[in-house]
TrEMBL record:
Keyword Translocase: no
UniProt keyword terms in alphabetical order: ATP-binding, Nucleotide-binding, Transport
Pfam (any one): ABC_tran
Location of the ABC transporter domain: 2-237
Molecular function terms from GO: ABC-type amino acid transporter activity; ATP binding; ATP hydrolysis activity
Species of the source: Lactobacillus helsingborgensis
Protein name per its UniProtKB record: Amino acid ABC transporter ATP-binding protein
UniProt xrefs under InterPro entries: AAA+_ATPase, ABC_ATPase_HisP-typ, ABC_transporter-like_ATP-bd, ABC_transporter-like_CS, MetN_ABC_transporter-like, P-loop_NTPase
The keyword GTP-binding appears for this protein: no
Family recorded in the similarity comment: Belongs to the ABC transporter superfamily.
Length: 243
């Protein structure tokens, strides 16, 4: 589903991603962790071309992102993204937020689209808010709507960029439970940047630990949390309380 080969990313002269080599197969749930500024968001954003790369090869869902002719809109039909700050359309109600892309991009008949949107809103536990505006719902509810909106396009790959970082503590768990539910119930591939170590432990098949723009460890979740191989990962984990 995703293959990085010696990928390099620069912001001006700053070398943000160094020689990234990484392969993610269909159905994997991969969690990306590491200190602040280590390049996690940058890496995840290259996968749907929100950030360009300056070297190496990046293949996503059989599309070569190193090739300027590759169509970003086509790519984003298969690759969804859930952002830290939800990014809902403020002037559209919850139901419309979920129905918009399937209507415009996939031309799904209106009734079918509505049925699907209500089903997804029910799945993430916010069906009763379908006719509310985003400003009228909580942060946790907004993020669950954003997840339903991504799922409405039936992505093959779903990227989560710190999906709970902007939430009050009491709302974090409701969002994590929804993510856990959708990643365990489907063969969708997920890549999740998170600082929630307890959740990472629970949901991930595989953990990638980054530091200073490099992948330092790439291991199955159990091995990583029980026996991190590098000093850097050990130090990182020792500073964090894992539940
Ligand atoms: N648009 C940008 N322009 C210049 N530098 C940037 C830009 N975006 C990120 N950086 C730099 O790239 C590095 C990696 O940033 P990134 O946001 O990917 O890290 P992160 O691991 O996701 O951090 P955090 O956990 O704090 O979100 C940081 O040093 C950051 O300052």
């Amino acid at each position: 589903m995703v293959e990085f080969r010696d990928v390099q990313k620069f912001y001006g002269k700053f070398h943000a991603l160094h020689n990234i080599n990484l392969q993610i197969d269909q159905g994997e749930t991969v969690v990306l962790i590491g200190p602040s500024g280590s390049g996690k968001s940058t890496l995840i954003r290259t996968i749907n071309r929100l950030e360009s790369i300056q070297g190496g090869k990046l293949i996503v869902n059989n599309q070569d992102l190193s090739n300027p002719k590759t169509d970003s809109n086509r790519l984003r039909q298969d690759v969804g993204m859930v952002f830290q700050h939800f990014n809902l359309y403020k002037n559209k109600n919850v139901l419309e937020n979920v129905m918009l892309a399937p209507r415009i991009v996939s031309h799904i008949p209106e009734e079918e689209n509505k049925k699907q949107a209500l089903h997804l809103l029910d799945m993430v536990g916010v069906a009763d808010k379908a006719h509310n505006m985003p400003a009228q719902i909580s942060g946790g509810q907004k993020q669950r709507v954003a997840i339903a909106r991504s799922l409405a396009m039936h992505p093959k790959l779903l990227l989560f960029d710190e999906p709970t970082s902007a939430l009050d503590p009491e709302m974090i768990d409701e969002v994590l439970q929804v993510i856990k539910k959708i990643t365990s119930a489907s063969d969708m591939t997920s890549l999740i940047v998170t600082h929630e170590m307890g959740f990472a432990k629970e949901v991930a098949n595989r953990v990638i630990f980054m530091d200073q723009g490099q992948i330092v460890e790439d291991d199955d979740s159990k091995s990583f949390f029980e026996r991190p191989k590098t000093d850097r990962a050990q130090q990182f984990l020792s500073k964090i309380i894992t539940h």
